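tool=predict chain=A
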Amino acid sequence: MNLLTTYLSRPSTQRILSKKPGQEGFSLIELVVVIAVLAVLTAIALPNFLGVSDDAAARSGQQAVVTAFKECQVRKARGETSGDFSQADIADFVITSTAPATTLASIVTVPTAAKTCFTSNALNNFVAYPKTNFKFPKFGITDAGVKSCYSGDTAKTTTHDVGCDATGGTSVWGATAGKWR
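tool=predict ok
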């Protein structure tokens, strides 16, 4: 019994035994502060997370048009002067080709889904056109391999330049071509 009495009489044991149930944990003020900090962090981070899906969609449009261009380049290297590319449309873009004389700036509506590599034995231009106008830029690659993009909707004063450094201008899709980013 002597050992138990000695243990119970120690100051550290007395402190533990003198605490009442419910005195542990966080106060209401501490919990409110933590929730407020989390709310501020969420408000700051949420727009960045929402933009990730748009960035991914723009990158997939860029990659799809590059794939179509490369497939037709291979056909050209093999000496072919006709044939279609197999790149399918993707969720947010129509992948198509246009005659070499057609400029990316002149395409203002969703083009027909022509998937031909050549026009009159010449390599076509390739375009990833957004299915929803002005949600994304339109991306293109000329027959010479020059990449360009147009973004912005000056009629609605909005710019959707995800993946494109052109921002608006005097025409519906922007005055000048931008570069992919």
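Residues 28-77 form the longest helix (50 residues). The radius of gyration is 31 Å.
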